[in-house]
Amino acid sequence: METRTDDVKVAARPASLSPSRASDFMQCPLLYRFRVIDKLPEKPSEAATRGTLVHAVLERLFDAPATERTAPRAKALVPGQWDRLREAKPELAELFADDGAGERVAQWLADAEKLVERWFTLEDPTRLEPAERELFVEAELASGLKLRGIIDRVDVAPTGEVRIVDYKTGKAPRPEYAEGALFQMKFYALVVWRLKGLIPRRLQLVYLGSGDVITYDPVQADLERVERKLLALWEAIVLATETGEWRPRPTKLCGWCDHQAVCPEFGGTPPPYPLPVRAPESGADEQGRMGPG
Ligand code: SF4
Question: 3-state class of 21 per DSSP?
Answer without folding.
Answer: helix
